[in-house]
Amino acid sequence: MSRINTNVSSLVAQRVLGQNNFGLNNSLERLSTGLRINRGKDDPAGLIASENLRAEIKSVGAAINNAERAERVVNIAEGGLSEVSGLLTELQGLITNSANDAGLSTAEKEANQLQIDSILQTIDRVADQTSFQGTKLLNGNFDFRVSSQASGIDDLRVNGAKFEGNSLDVDVLVTQSAQRAGQFLSFGATSLNLGGATATDGASSTFVIEVAGSLGSREFSFASGTTVAQIAETVNTFSDVLGVSAVASGNGVRLQSAEFGSNEFVTTKIVDDAQQGGNVTSYLATEFGNGDADLGAFNSTAATNGIRDVGQDIGATINGIVATTDGKTAKIDTDFLNLEISLDTTNSQSLGAVGTGQTFSIAGGGATFQLGGNVDITSKVTLGVSEVAIRKLGSNAAGGFLDDLGSGKNFNVVDGDLTSAQKVVSEAIEQVSTLRGRLGAFQRNTLGATKRSLAVNLENSSAAESTIRDTDFASETAALTRSQILVSAATNTLSLANNQPQTALQLLG
Question: Is residue 186 part of a domain?
Fold first, then answer.
């Protein structure tokens, strides 16, 4: 080169040195911060993806904390329910002990009643004092509020409901009537006429029949001249151990199961007909479903072997979902609606909609937990925790509630109905146990699975965000070394380029 005004070689060396310095500074920044993307210009698309992942990671982390908080809330509720369960078990023992009339004095029964009153007060106190950060858990705070309830509903429990808006209408449609098991024993007269044409022919004979139900069986023997009313009265003496009741009707006796549903049955076996004319028929098509068909004469093989009739569960849909049924009770369990409803006899045997418009409305309530990163209805889980108070434990179907066992009430152990008292306590034990089971399933399946799933989500999202944004130290260290060498080489080159015009002075001699 023989020109000195413009040193092109120097300009090239300066440009290259600047580029190498830029690369060196980038490597130093990435290695010092640990991030590949420190500003938008580093990777615009990567920055957008990274920020979205960071937001998702933050939401998932909060959801995991929510799940852990929900578990602590349920643990406290479970602790209170466990104590109530123990008290109810003690209550059951006191009732059984008090039923021992011949072995207990009145004073001892009164002492048992004092214990019962104390237990009832304690149950209410536990329900009122079980709380989390001042929020009471067992006093109905987390129960669902129901409005516009139709008549004819014996019992209703909403265990879970998710909906948007102020309320959720629930429509119950009966598609199949609930039925008792039952038969009609037709004797052709209002009293037995054994031995054939005249009562005297069978004076020494007995009509022997075996009746069986879901609770047990008994064999009965009746003499000639026994009226159908006496037969019904005798069978009813054992109704509690048979699960079958009897009603005298015209020239016969109607046998029917005490409860409704496919688990109930009535079996009639003629052990000795003693030449009593008559037959076994089904009874009441609307209730037993078989019409008035003749099932067998008393002296038929069918009657000798035993004629059996089985009850029928109600069929129903709830908000268009086919319900699981048992007797007069229908229930559904979905992610958006979990409830159990028991209808009275009239509604359970009337096909069609229950109530006018909707059966009832859920107007809010329940415990809602946010268990997902996105705040929407699918990420929320609702749980109904019913009130555990003595006026709520029990049911109309069981004949009453726990507060009926108090002093002076119908089911007190001094002079009250102990059989009904035991039924109420058994119902209360089942209700508390069912609630504990639902809470346990919520902890184990919902919270447990959710936390595991969210933890995997958090792990994978963090890995993806790290891949996009974090510095790869191995490759960046190599890049730093390369940039350092290039900067050094470019600096030396620039020095040579700046010295090169000095050769032009040699032309001046």
Answer: yes
